[in-house]
Batch of 2 targets.
Target 1
Amino acid sequence: MSRRIEAVIFDFDDTLIDWSAVGESFEVVVRPHLDKLRTHLVQLGHPVPAGDHFAATYRQIIISAWDRAKKTWRSVRFDNCLHELFTRSGLDAAAIDLDAAMRAYDWRPIPNVVLYDDTLTVLQTLRRQNYKLGLVTNSMLPMWMRDIELEAYGLLPLFDARLTSGDAGYIKPHTAIYERILDLLETSAERAVFVGDRPQNDIAGANASGLTSVLMDPPHLNHKLDDVQPDYTITQLSELLPLLAELECRDRDRV
Ligand SMILES: [Mg+2]
């Protein structure tokens, strides 16, 4: 008998990895990489402003880019932000190799951001059970940069398809990004479950796209539901395993 649910798609930050020890601090998360990028540009002879000024400009660019994205659901792209940073810093942006700049940024797992205790076990179990696994993150970074993190956490080989909003052109909750990952996984909304921690984008988008939605709601998060209603709520990933089994039984009973 074939199963109804054949794919499980995850958000990344705070769904598979735990940010509770860090918070989204610019100084911790972004600044060390920006300093590496600045050093790279200085070594190439570009007249880069001082570190604090360079960082403040970048921060402003990112904040306004995400403000715009939240109104239009068109994604923010890291390469575009860097191009704007170079221009606004008075540099000759056309003379800077963006790919080399992104490599010099040297993206890595964030210190003290860790896997939840059960992340690896749950993903490995789902794979053994022959579910297709996908990942969709609202990240301006291209997937190859977030892959550096997935690889470091040992998660990279577990996914059949992965997508950042920067690459997809849209952010969650726009339905286009869900359609894209379903295409990549060669499945349909009715046969897929989406697991994410943010009601307003992960869950609202999954609901609008017709996927079964599961809110990941661990104790350290306090996201408001407002008018968004997830199909299911879990507080740790291991609760997914009995939930998926229950979904199959329920459908079998219905038939
Ligand atoms: Mg998240």
Note: Residues 11, 13-15, 196-198 surround magnesium ion (CB under 6 Å).
Target 2
Amino acid sequence: MSKFPVIIDQKKPIELLTAFLQKGTIPNALLFTGIEGVGKRTIATMFAMACNCLSKEPWSFFQSGNQATKCRICYCKACVKIRSGSHPDIIHIKPSGAYIKIAQIRSLRDMLAMKPYEARIRVVIISDAQAMNPSAGNALLKVLEEPPARTILILTTIQSSDLLPTIVSRCQHIRFNPISCKSLEDILVDKEGLDYDDAKIVAILASGSLSKALSIAESKNRVSWINRRSWLINTLNLDMPGQMSTQPVVSLLAFAAELSKNKEILQDSLGVIKSWLRDVIVYKSCPEKIINKDLIDNIQHVSQKLTARDLIAKIEAIRTAQKGIKAGANLRLTLEAMVIQLAYEPQT
Ligand SMILES: [Zn+2]
């Protein structure tokens, strides 16, 4: 951790952790859940520092600002070691390849059988705990059933249902929120120097994840996402509603095929189309509140042609496709159905 972390929009987790520290009642195992890039690992490391800091000042490392929380920089021996990743009793376990393997949990168990070298409280952070294969999960369960002295385990994952229920039930569950668009925009403007309009678009694309927002904000990625947005909107002919019904089906099917090729960014691409449709609706009553401000001419044009009802039906078509995809429906067929609903004017 070279740059000192800023944690945003995680008031509740921070209050819970601070209460454990103040009361001296720290559970043996914590489970941090939430989407990628909201600060789970960062807060786990900060918590390890709070548990082991040697400074005489009481730990006030979670200083609450308005929405951002800054970590106090402490230069005591323990905090410096933890920050640099060289503390012998702060153990990080993460997937090796696709999985966390049983060998990793066995060697953890051997380490935990010994006393901590120097920590007041040893902290084991298991990142992406959902990557434990069943045998690793069962081996970890044994550790949780007989918790070693002066040791806390912190597991991170996206949702608790990704883990064995027997593991979840032995952990104190702490939920991390997606970061609000407004907070992401502020960070992008203040810390990354983006202009306000760009920050709005990037914040939408990031869907609540700070790490994703920072990655998109890099100018190379930003340009490619802005190009992708043009491609999505132009291909669907959403900016030329008069021509919607003349868009040949074959080119729409090709578009669905193209979308299905890039699974990693598919949900984000659908999010882009949704944010644009939302703008067309919003434009009708509050034009100043649209997100894609650089596309205002298109948005104005389309909002005159389509009714709010048509637009809501299109947004609904995307939502249905997103749900279907998450539930494992046939990707290509789902996208084809969605694209056709999007491109053609509803028959009323
Ligand atoms: Zn310290």
Note: The domain at 6-175 is CATH 3.40.50.300 (Rossmann fold).
